[in-house]
Amino acid sequence: ETGVTQSPTHLIKTRGQQVTLRCSSQSGHNTVSWYQQALGQGPQFIFQYYREEENGRGNFPPRFSGLQFPNYSSELNVNALELDDSALYLCASSLLAGGQDTQYFGPGTRLTVL
Amino acid sequence: RKEVEQDPGPFNVPEGATVAFNCTYSNSASQSFFWYRQDCRKEPKLLMSVYSSGNEDGRFTAQLNRASQYISLLIRDSKLSDSATYLCGWYNNNDMRFGAGTRLTVKP
């Protein structure tokens, strides 16, 4: 086990709703990255947080937002949910910002939008 | 051209076989590269990072060719436990990209 935890495990929402996903990083890690993985695809980078600041962002619209807390845990918020937002959402923690350091993934939250 | 392209797969090989995956990338500024394995309905786990001309870890060898912009993964003496999806990817300036993955099934 990596020590990275995510909640909830599964979630069902309807179009237009808002959702908050949570991630607790591995002990000692100060960087959290979020990814979206659609069925049959690789993880798509959403953004990264380092010491409570956004530290890089992929090609996702502003309705995808995040937070990192002083204990380095993190939230991913998605507003105005769309059907295409249905996916596995993964967070990964690392000791160093950027991605050069090994990223340890959590088990993911499977989001279904109806 | 996709940012990261992988062999379409799936690869079905017998135990003990040697199998190789290729992965091409379009961003010539990519700084570092890696291979992850992902078991069905599980999270990705780092298999190998590839920082320079390549590296080896037991039965696994990763190669990087910057001139041709591809990385490869070679698995020797395949085991049943190697069955998984293998994801390649790159990192550059706080941006990380993964390929869609290649499915490997090792059969008895």
Word description of this protein:
- The complex is a heterodimer of chains A (114) and B (108).
- Chain A is mostly beta strands and 114 residues long.
- Chain A has no helices and 11 strands.
- In chain A, the strands form 2 sheets. In chain A, strands 2, 4, 5, 6, 9, 10 and 11 form a 7-stranded mixed beta sheet that branches. A 4-stranded antiparallel beta sheet of chain A has the order 1-3-8-7, with no helix packed on it.
- The termini of chain A are far apart.
- The model of chain A has no long low-confidence stretch (mean pLDDT 92).
- Chain B has 108 residues and is mostly beta strands.
- In chain B, strand 7 and strand 8 form a beta hairpin.
- The radius of gyration of chain B is 13 Å and the shape is globular.
- The mean pLDDT of chain B is 90.
- Classes of the chains: A mainly beta (114), B mainly beta (108).
- The interface between A and B is medium-sized, with 25 and 21 residues.
Oligomer: heterodimer
Specify the biggest β-sheet of chain A. 7 strands, mixed
Please work out how many helical segments of chain A DSSP would assign.
Answer: 0
Helical coverage of chain A, percent range: under 10%
The total count of strands of chain B amounts to: 11
Helix and strand sequence of chain B? EEEEEEEEEEE
- Secondary structure class of chain A reads mainly beta
Provide the low-confidence segments of chain B as ranges.
none
Alpha carbon gap, first and last residue of chain A:
32 Å
Count of extended strands of chain A: 11
Which range best describes the helical content of chain B: under 10%, 10-25%, 25-40%, 40-55%, 55-70% or over 70%?
A: under 10%
Catalogue the unreliable spans of chain A: none
